[in-house]
Amino acid sequence: MFAAYAARIDRDQPLNGLELGERPAPGARPGWTTVNVKAASLNHHDLWSLRGVGLGEEALPMILGCDAAGTDQDGNEVVLHSVIGQSGHGVGPDEPRSILTERYQGTFAEQVTVPAWNVLPKPKELSFAEAACLPTAWLTAYRMLFTNAGVRPGDSVLVQGAGGGVATAAIVLGAAAGLRVFATSRSEDKRKRAVELGAEAALPSGERLPERVDAVIETVGAATWSHSVKSLKPGGTLVISGATSGFNPERTELNRIFFLELKVVGSTMGSKDELASLLNFCAAKGVRPVIDTTLPLDRAREGFAKLAEGEMFGKVVLTV
Fold it and tell me: Rounded to two decimals, what is the model's pTM?
């Protein structure tokens, strides 16, 4: 079957390790099911995998891709939850939790095999491309906002780095849930689009907000960390799920964290139940993922280049 896969690890030039071509179709295994992929979306996780983060040389070649929507062996339209081993279904008792492509072949292919427990029905209201955007970036944003930040309608939230998949999802979901959403970006165009998606205001990165917020959604890391901490109300919550600009901020702002009794919460992906709730929320309220570009699988390299350059607003989707 045709697939986009990591053939080599290159920490400095990750796209050098990306190959497009034929790979073996997945074999049957007890408790697992094979899904015919209709659409799959890119995440920064895929770039990190090409750099060798969470993916070792011994696991190569590895088909990339965490997210997918497609049809199961009975023709049902489905969405995949890409955290394997979270429930214990389909894996051994001592096997650690992992995301697709860390231990198991991913979704940038004509077919993918996952534990049957990891398959959810796709709402008819969502296209395959829209549904394929949800299991990583949108699920991450959903958990950050509604589980880990604990915000309620009327609360205020800062979303750093408008344009990325998680940040875009947080703006749309937050606005739809009645939150006051502020966003930042270095790009004037991305700031305008953030307001169009429901942000109350969008400011240049690092600029002081009109008021302090109840929570910050942080995926940028080192470049925005100090601004995130300074933007919180006393007792506020900073939820972090990524660090695309680096892991070591110049200023940690520890004095602000303890003096203002701020909470810093790490967040990774989400549960199957949260994904089911997200799917229902999108279907019931007309919320739709923001898609920047849709490409056929054989043009995956173009999608990876857009992701690496940070030129997209929303998700890049590959169709099969």
Answer: 0.92
